[in-house]
Amino acid sequence: MIKNLADFTEEERKKAMERYYTLEPYFKKLKSVKAVSESEKVPSRTLYNWISRYKNDGLAGLIDKTRKDRNRIKIDEDTINFVQNEYFSNRGISIASIHRKTKQWCNNKKLSEPSYYQVYNIIKRIPENLKAYSNMNSKKYAEKYDGIYTRECERPNEIWQADHTMLDIEVLNEKNEIERPWLTIVLDDYSRAIAGFRIEFGTPDTERTALVLRQAIWKKEIQIGQFVGYQKNSILTTVKTILQNICNKYQLISK
């Protein structure tokens, strides 16, 4: 696995570049390892070791393992959160701008300043789906990353939805006790028309939902829309009218 240069200090990266420049004549086939050893006063064994490490890990491989955790600037967790927040809050902001803001913020908080490469590394490690979410609207993000298959209907009665809600009224149940009833509605996804509804006590379950679906499928002698003065694109008005009719019929008082 190739190491990331951003994990190392500026001094360590500078040392790695110096070693690369030492090996450069060999990589360009201008000198042999023996010739480089003689001109740079570096043992051939050391040069072969550097060459092997460079081939495996790139420039990061030229950094001594014994120095990897020495003189490293430890990044405070609050600093990491600040960098990530700046990235998500400012769409299109450059890493250089985030680095400048982070340095100023760290100075105010008396914290160690991260290098540009450390800020770059923090942003690079943010999961791609989170980066995409900050750059897309919710619909585009859902289309690309959500694992749930969604459908859009093209005509009435192609897709129905069932929903439940506890009503904000109190009535007497069969035990003569005050209780809040539940409203179950079957809604046409295309027209938003209410195909069926049921009001009763007890938490909704599959059996109660099936009863509402049966009532929604049956042909109505009087259309719900005509009965309650249904208006297209006005679901809340329709539900309110249904409840008002029920309250008037049974002389109920809304809470």
UniProtKB/TrEMBL annotation:
The protein's name? Integrase core domain-containing protein
Query: Any transmembrane segments, and where?
Result: none
Where does the Integrase catalytic domain lie?
152-255
What's any GO biological process attached to this entry? DNA integration
A Pfam short name: HTH_23
Which molecular function GO terms apply here?
nucleic acid binding
